[in-house]
Amino acid sequence: MKLKHLAVVIATALSVSACGNLTAQHKNMPESITTQEQNKVFSQDYLLEELDNGLRVMVVKTDYPDLVSVQIPVSTGSRDEVEPGKTGFAHFFEHMMFKGSKKFPQAEYSDIFKNAGVDNGAYTTNDYTNYHLDFSKEHLEKVLEIQADHFQNLNYSEAQFRTEALTVKGEYLKNNANPLRKLLSAVRNTAYDTHTYKHTTMGFFEDIEAMPDQMAYGKQFFDRFYKPENVSIIIVGDVEPAATLAMVKKYWGEWQRGDFKSQIPAEPKQKAPRYQHEIYDGLPGHWLLVSYKGSNWQPAEKDRAALDLISELYFSNNSALYQELVVDKQLASQMLTYNPETKDAGLRHVFIKVDDEKNLPLVRDAINRTYAQARAETVSKEKLDNLKSNLKYSFINEMDSSEAIAGTLASYMHFTRDPEVINQLYQSFDNISPQDIKRIANKYFIDSNRTTVTMSALDKIEGFEQEVDLAAAVAKLSEKPAKVGFSILDNSNDSPLVDVNFLFYTGAAADPEGKKGLAALTASMLTQGGSQSRSYKEIKKGLYPLAGSFAGQLDKEMMSFSGRVHKDNAAAWYALVSDQLLNPGWREDDFKRLKKELIDGIKSSLKASNDEELGKEVLYSKLYPGHSYESYNYGDVSDIETLTLDDVKSFYKEQLTQAKLHLGITGALPQTVKERLIDDLTQLPEGDEKRLTIAEAPKLKGHHATIVEKPAKSTAVSFGFPIETLRNNEDWAALWLVRSYFGEHRSSNSYLYQQIRQNRGMNYGDYSYIEYFPRGMFQTKPDANLGRSSQIFQIWLRPLRSNSDAHFATRAALYELDKLIKNGMTEKDFQATRNFLVNYVPQLVASQDKQLGYALDSEFYNTKDFVTYVREQLAKLTLTDVNRVIKENLQTEDMHYVYISGDAKDMKERLVKETRSALKYNSEKPAELLNEDKIIQDYPLEISTDNVEILQVDQVFE
């Protein structure tokens, strides 16, 4: 006979033994085929009928030719062994059932089965005993006839009984040599006081030794439990259901129903953790078993399913604990879990094999801290969903033969003899949320539910007295945010204003080819769209009395969602905005509205009415051909038009992950809101990629120009080239100082401003940059959260009156740049600019939200806080440093120019022909200036015809 070996159980416990919710029993079911719905894990059609005597019969026709599997689960196991001194009889009778009957004694039916090729076996568990036979379909009727006679007319002699008792004793001794079985015996005996789960299916050894003299009790046991109301017959294979059912009725229909009911003693509530050390002479290494009492079989509760998920999440071979103990630190050589399904509250086990005795307390504490972690944190929804999917499809994949299907059905049918329990189980899995995992972990994984067993050749384990206090461990974990997969910058203070910034290291650079604008549309859906429970109109209405804000900002590598609210309104504000961010409604009306607004923003707000920003964005595009920075942050119109709501959902799932999230908090955010916020964010997918991988900027060679033609009465100019000096570079502060001196944004003190606007009155302002600065025409100071892995040196000349003036202003800026590179800065200018910046830099972080934004940027660039970093770097600078940095970073040999002009042909002709661009003034000018103009008006830009591109404005970002 075959017994279900523990090692197999441990290896497959979650995939075939997890238990969940049940439906009510079917009474007097009709003889009919039940057709399964396609979304169920057990999807085979089946016939299920309960005979008048209470026997349940299930027939499943499969497409596997010729083969049939018959499984006969009897709903009795070691749990039913309630009389003192009578343990082990459920398993013993599994043996005795092979002795046969008068009609088919063992020798005779064994010969029949041998000739028919019948594979015949059985196994016993806590709650049921299962008999399984596999054979060719031509032998089905004979198998049913023989088994029916055995179940109804079992017959054996006292000699056979006594002999088999000796065999069972030998099996016990053999099994007890297995450390895992010995540990299980010890932990059950220690953990239970009155319940029959106190003994294993083998029973207590003293009871096994007494079995040979228990012939009368043996007959009583058989008469009590081997009755049709306790039995199911499952027939799976190449059979005809109706004819098969008729065979069962023919041989099993007259079997008489019984009336015995087991009275299982209730187990009192355990009041304290328990520990037992088992001595195993000659055992190599040391074994540790940590077991917690779990749930009973609960049709209407989530507990059992959640406990199975917890075991897989935290203790499987894929778990962080396994990696730590077995793979990384190698404190343990084996780690196994075993969670048998039980009708009453059973034990959930973690076995660990440890070579060095001193590591036993470390490993035990690590296990219990992991249980504390399950209680303290909220598991990632993505991780939980992935596990559910794995369990579901693993189950389906294993149903690949008639034997596998029948065996699986037998392991579930014994509870209520209803196959639908399988689908109810996986529905129960589906209904488990991250919050359920945490709640149920806190219910069961408490100190008073724990029993620990050690086993080795030692008399005792040194240093094992003090165990982890789970409540204290959970409290300690809760002092800080639960372990999360994202970065938290908590700058809480006493300010009544609360600012929160959800900064993700992703953005337009993550837009797939052909879907430019996807990041922008996603960001809009999360701040200007509704949630699952509220429309966007309702959210705005809710924010209004709170005076709360929530908005998004998008760049190449950063997507920021930030908001502000008074601390008194923080809870109500968070309820609204978290719903948007974490439970987006993905409403079709929001999607259509925001998609239309995005397209309109490119066509109307940028291309039609903002020549200055248009020129700057075209410059970036032209400096990054074929690069992830090439496209406009808000996309290309033709791409946006093809985007779907599913595209947005996919981007959200793939890019807005915990790995990419950097949460910033400042102000007096109430602790309860903060804890909920952090807890909720663990619902985001964990993700693996922490930030986007950005290639180096393409190499620019020579002078190039792009002229965008549109109806315009003035000409906007931008030009520049890529640079490698980023904020975390040792030369950045020096280059930032040079930029400020040469063209501080919206400052009349900058050199270009003085030369082009102040002295010549050509335009409204002239500025230079070494970091991306969008929306410059609307604000005097840069926004935070525009961190990039690649930057450009850029000069922005605000619109000029004509193409000729634009040509002159470009020459003037280039002329001044050449002078700067050649001559460097003067000591006076260096000192003045440094003094300005030392005093000016705090203005960039003058508000609380700016401080938070810049602090998050410092994490991106891995620098100190911005003001400290800049001031320290500036303090170390010398004029020599600055002039070296100028020569190493600035150049005029490779440049791209962008013009927004009403006459592109004229602008191109001026550029390629190096047309003189003389200035005319309406007032007298100093001779020195006029003499300089004569140089500038013919200053060469050296742009060849082949390097000039004319674009109509409707071609740009389309």
From TrEMBL:
Question: Which InterPro entries does this UniProt record tie to the protein?
Answer: Metalloenz_LuxS/M16, MPP/UQCRC_Complex, Pept_M16_N, Peptidase_M16_C
The protein's UniProt keywords, in alphabetical order, are: Signal
Q: Which PROSITE patterns match?
A: PROKAR_LIPOPROTEIN
UniProt-recorded Gene Ontology molecular function terms: metal ion binding
Q: Which PANTHER family match?
A: METALLOPROTEASE (PTHR11851), MITOCHONDRIAL-PROCESSING PEPTIDASE SUBUNIT ALPHA (PTHR11851:SF49)
What this protein is called in its record is: Insulinase family protein
Q: Which segments cross the bilayer?
A: none
List each copy of the Peptidase M16 N-terminal domain by range.
57-202
At the top level, the lineage of the source is: Bacteria
The positions making up the signal sequence are 1-18
**One Pfam family, short name please?**
Peptidase_M16_C
Family under the similarity heading: Belongs to the peptidase M16 family.
Please list the residue ranges annotated as the Peptidase M16 C-terminal domain.
219-391, 643-835
